[in-house]
Amino acid sequence: MKAGVYRYQQNSRIGRETMDKKFREELILEYAPLVKKIVDRIAIRLPPNISKDELASGGIMGLVDAIDKYDQRKGTQFRTYATLRIKGAILDELRKMDWVSRSIRRDIHKIEDARRTIGVRLGREPDDFEVAEEMGIDLDSYHRMTTRAQGIGLFSLDGTVPDCFDSKDATRTAEASSPFNALKRKELKQIIAETLKKLSEKEQLVMSLYYFDELTLKEIAQVLNLTESRISQIHSKAIIKLRVKLRSYDEG
Q: Residue 157: is its pLDDT beyond 70?
């Protein structure tokens, strides 16, 4: 595959008019199943109204971008590089869709604000009852709000983290970045790592199974012998805790 991409890139350097379009199409067809696989894994975690076709279109654009910009001299496997590009393009497509509803967005911000207020007041992480009390709602209502937040990510809402850490920047590890952006990225990773250590054992386990082992919420529920709704609550609460820390960093 490296030789194939290299051949295509050499052809493209001769001039756009003489580019081997057929060979380029062959490369896209060869790696189209990778795009589908990534789309399917991401779509499982999203509401059913999100169009897979739109995500796939973004993923193909990421694949084309990977073909055009891959540099085998840097020692990265093309499949690894392409995977990062495809995921980044799909996340960009999701961002354009603005698929998080206004009501869910509003609820998430309310929970985050309440957690931050109590955290400053008490000097520790608040429990669910304390957050619900601060928001003036009962515990069941609070749990329903966190369940509705299923599918949110660390960087899926406005104003969560600095612009230097968007999905495009995060996936372009093979390209040079400014010392400022590199420092910001390092600091953010450190904050995330430290916050993860402070999560409960169950929250850490859910985050690990979801993001590192790439299990769905349903699969995690089966592993832990809990309901999918309960796993959704645990995941959402963990994400909100991380987002609160990142917002504090951004505004600090």
A: no
